[in-house]
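Chapter summary example.
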Amino acid sequence: MSDQHEDIYQKTLASSLQSHTSSWRKFSEADFVLGLPLEMSWEMVEELTHGFRSRIPAYENGEYLPYEGLQPVNGTRVTVKRYTREWHTILQKEKKAALSMRHKNILRLIAFYDGENTTVLAFPFTIRGPLHTNLYGSMGKQLKLKFQEKLKIAIDIARGLRYMHEECPQGPIVHGNLLITNIFLRNDLRPMISGFGQATWLHLKQTKPNSNQKCSLRDHLDREAMALVKFDIQSYGVLLLRLFCKRSTTLQDDRTLTEWARPLLMKRAFHELLDEDWEDVDMHEMFRVMCTAYQCTMSRPDMRPCISEIISYLKGENFCVMQTSPSDSIR
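The structure predicted for these 331 residues follows.
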């Protein structure tokens, strides 16, 4: 190779490396700036995941293959989800969610790759992983959570949901898939809501709801949209049952779990619902949790409370009653 060609080659290589490093720096900052998450090249994806070698079986939920990634520039850890089918809608909604929401209890997309045969999504790494692996154990391990820790997790999830339903500047957002597999825990046990592939952005009928008016969202959504909001509330009620009820029972599907729990909730037979020996449990707090779960899982959507009411119940700011209805049967 001539000196001239060598010089051109070195400049081209340096320019390429500089561009690649610049992209990784953008990736580092993507979670903190306004705008779309970083679009990665396939080379960046392979570098990020070390060729998809660091798979995390405990994170799997049937929708994607999860991997742990490491950002080359600063060593930041990320969670990588690789989809092989029905990914285009998921990607568009995850990108929209990243643009729409900023909240400490919401896990935002920070980078993505969109190819012909696969889509790859990258999120900030949460060291404890999905809530379901912490509750039910992974590889024989199970996180022992105290009652107060579970209550704080429940309230923080509700705060994230309240932001989506009532406080988001872009208007109300319905998650649509609020499962324990879509809740991730940081090392400090802060829950992060993820999985916005089934989210729905709602349109208000008139003006933005008055935040000082209790549950004013009802006045600004049509019946169909309000039903979607209340579907999130029902999912939150099931999540409460999975957090606080017997582990052996909560392994059942949502419908079976709810059918088992609701008669016991109505009778206040909390000793049959719970098997944990919590030293820090307060029966008044336990009643608030169980009453809230009961209200959230009412069969009639219009009977379920809004998320602001739920938070006030769990914090003890308002009293929750075991409200019943003749038509309140599991459907």
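To summarize the output: The beta strands are 38-39, 65-70, 77-83, 111-114, 119-124, 129-130, 173-174, 183-185, 191-193, 200-201.
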